Amino acid sequence: MTATLSRSVPLARAPRRRRPRSRAAVWAAVAVIGFFGLAPIYWLVVTAFTPDERAFTFPPSLVPAEITFDHFTKLAENEQLFGYLVNSVVVSVVTALLSVVVSAYMAYAFSKFRYRGRKSLMHLVLASQLFPQALLLVTLYAVFSATGLLGSYAALILSFTTFTLPLCVWMLKGIFDTVPSTLMEAAAIDGASRWRTLHRIALPLAAPGLVAAGLFAFVRAWNDFIFALTLTDPDRQTLPPGLVHTYLGEFQTAWPDLMAASFVVSLPVIAAFMFLQRYLVGGLTAGAVKG
Amino acid sequence: METLDRRAAFRLAGLSALGAALAACAPDAAGGGAPKGDAAAKTFGFTSWSLNEEAQKAAVQATVDAYAARTGVTIDTASFPYNEYLNQVTLKLRGGQLSGAVQLDISWLAALAAMGRLKDLGPQAAKGGYTDVALSSGRFQGRQLGLPWTTGSIGLVANTELLKKAGVEGMPATIEEFEDALRKVAGLGGGITPYAAATKAAQLKDILPWMRTFGSPLMEGDTITVGDDASVAAVEWYKKLYDAELIAPDVDRFDARALFAQGKAAFYDDAVITRGVVAAQSPDKSLTEKMAPLARPVLKAGDTPQALLWGHVIVVVDGEGSDAAADFASYATSDTATVAAFFEKVKLPPTTTAGLADPKVAGDTFTTEWTEKITKTATPNPFWRYAGYAQIETAIAEQVQAVLVGRSTAKDALAKAAETAKPLQK
């Protein structure tokens, strides 16, 4: 008994000694990553509340000595920015919806049907991600110009949907792969058509994935700068080019105003993430592990 | 596992196509389209980054509105952010989506002129009463492709209060006096950078006027002379200031303005518009009264002070409606009442003799001093004649930075810069 205890003590102590160290390492890693992730956001918020003449104080102050709401007041009075916001919402929401609808059907077809060229098509869809998107800008510009779409919302929505489809399709295919085919077969035995099976069984089961795909497409459309600047008319531009246009000038950058605007326009995306994050995590990881 | 029959395949394909069709159903007939019409068209476009810049948009819009009211034309305006402007304008001109009058930075003229779509504005230039230096900023290969809207220069500006505190008497006129002034300012301590010179690669093109000051022509004919003894001496001098902490690392124009606005720099390089820009960033409400332009110090007394020409021109895309657009460009740049009112609002100096003599302009001491001390002897960057001028400047800037941080000698670095720049001369 004694011998057993004496053998078991070192075994029990070893992990106890390691645990604090490993915990400390984890917390240190979290702190470092958290600092890099949150420090820019902190600086954005501080600058947004700092008066213009204090924003450039050298050396910079981490805590604002004086606070102003002027930048937010100016923002509220800027109708043009509201227009950019509306454009962003229209483009991002339609892109997200379109991406989800198109990619859901594509993914279902890739996952549940067997036909000649299926794998080649799947890899072709993925291969389109290999091209730097900026390279496609000139080509898309010419195409939209020739088709009369240049300057419209449609030019942006189509471009963004094109870019988001490959990842959305592959993400959703992984999810549909996890839906047992026996479920489809059971539905068929009960008399459900393929159409009904897809809409009443497969899509509800893939809901987290659909949300994740939609969020991904929404954020992609919300954040884009160069396509939104190039493919639309100034009155249809979205927030990223709108903010640059408004605050970054030839001679001057209105940093506090820009930070205030950036803070406010980030809020809808933050809210969407907070509301939908459980779907997002579930959707992104679903289908990652089989078995 | 199911197999896809033909009907189902068509259904799925149809749904996918529907998505695309939905997005495509809202084209704007006017979207991105260039104004159409004949030469006497009453509608034309005007593209300008200033139309959306807080400090200038009201003044530019007033000019547009005044011309439209006077002539009964409709001007379709468009604007892009300054930093993306050249790319956007180039793309749209190449795609046939750009017409009418277009504001340009003078350094961009060659890039657009190379596309062969700009109208010769010689007749308008001949009757506009522009100054010679202003006209030169819109000329490309002997043709007047741009009408000068504002002509100024990039020159040195000083904080006279700091100089006085440091015991600097009068403005330094030679390199030796300038260096002496910098050392006196450094003696003030308090984290002051005596000269907030550009040291970041993105802005190190500011060293080009110093190379000229030391006697390098930068170009002779079609040969880049960067790497000659004078340019090497200029870079070695710059490095000396850097090592003595008379200039600071990692400074670009925005940093320099911030330092100057906070009273932490005695000298820096900027355009004539500097007053309004630094005033907006400064807690010192009387800073503008302490600012003074100075001619760039020369190597030896009697030399011509060097400065880089700077300004905006209005070009006109050849084609339908270009006559009306050219008339607008002429009005915006040479109508004396218009340019004087424009100056009053934005402090950008006009380009005509009559405009400069207008009491609104002539009564502005800072601007007249700037024109007299700096713009008078300013010259364009010789690399601007090449569409790839920015890459040439970058090649030089990167090598100068290598010298500053001690990775290379001035001679080797500039020889390498010249070698890199050579194939970019096109």
Characterize the structure shown.
The complex is a heterodimer of chains A (291) and B (426). Chain A has helices at residues 2-48, 52-55, 70-77, 79-112, 118-127, 133-147, 153-178, 181-189, 194-205, 207-223, 226-230, 239-247, 255-285, and one strand at residues 113-114. Chain A is an all-alpha fold. In chain A, helix 7 packs antiparallel against helix 10. Mean pLDDT of chain B is 89; it is low at 14-39. In chain B, strands 2, 3, 4, 7, 8, 11, 12 and 13 form an 8-stranded mixed β-sheet that branches. A two-stranded antiparallel sheet of chain B has the order 5-6. In chain B, strands 9-10 form a two-stranded antiparallel ribbon. Chain B is an alpha/beta fold. Chain B has helices at 6-24, 57-71, 82-94, 109-113, 122-126, 132-136, 160-166, 175-186, 207-213, 229-243, 253-261, 274-281, 287-290, 322-334, 336-346, 353-357, 359-362, 365-373, 389-404, 410-421, and strands spanning 2-3, 43-47, 74-78, 100-105, 139-140, 143-144, 146-159, 193-195, 219-220, 223-224, 265-270, 291-294, 308-317. Chain B has 2 domains: 43-152 and 309-377, D-Maltodextrin-Binding Protein, domain 2 (3-Layer(aba) Sandwich), CATH 3.40.190; 154-308 and 382-424, D-Maltodextrin-Binding Protein, domain 2 (3-Layer(aba) Sandwich), CATH 3.40.190.10. At the A-B interface, helix 2, helix 4, strand 1, helix 6 and helix 7 of A face strand 1, helix 1, helix 3, helix 11 and helix 12 of B. Strand 1 (113-114) of chain A pairs parallel with strand 1 of chain B.
Total of DSSP H or I helical runs spanning 4+ residues of chain B: 20
- Work out the radius of gyration of chain A: 26 Å
Largest interface: chains, residues each: A-B, 60 and 58 residues
CATH topology of the largest domain in chain A: MetI-like fold
Provide the CATH superfamily of the largest domain in chain A: MetI-like
**Average of the residue pLDDT scores of chain B:** 89
Residue share in helix of chain A: over 70%
* Broad shape of chain A: globular
Distance between the termini of chain B: 62 Å
Kindly state the number of beta strands of chain A. Answer: 1
CATH class of the largest domain in chain A: Mainly Alpha
CATH architecture of the largest domain in chain A: Orthogonal Bundle
Biggest sheet record of chain B: 8 strands, mixed
How many structurally independent domains of chain A? 2
What would you give as the CATH superfamily of the largest domain in chain B?
Answer: Periplasmic binding protein-like II
Transmembrane segments (chain A): 24-45, 81-108, 120-144, 150-172, 201-222, 258-276
GO biological process, one term (chain A): transmembrane transport
Main location (chain A): membrane
Subcellular location (chain A): Cell membrane
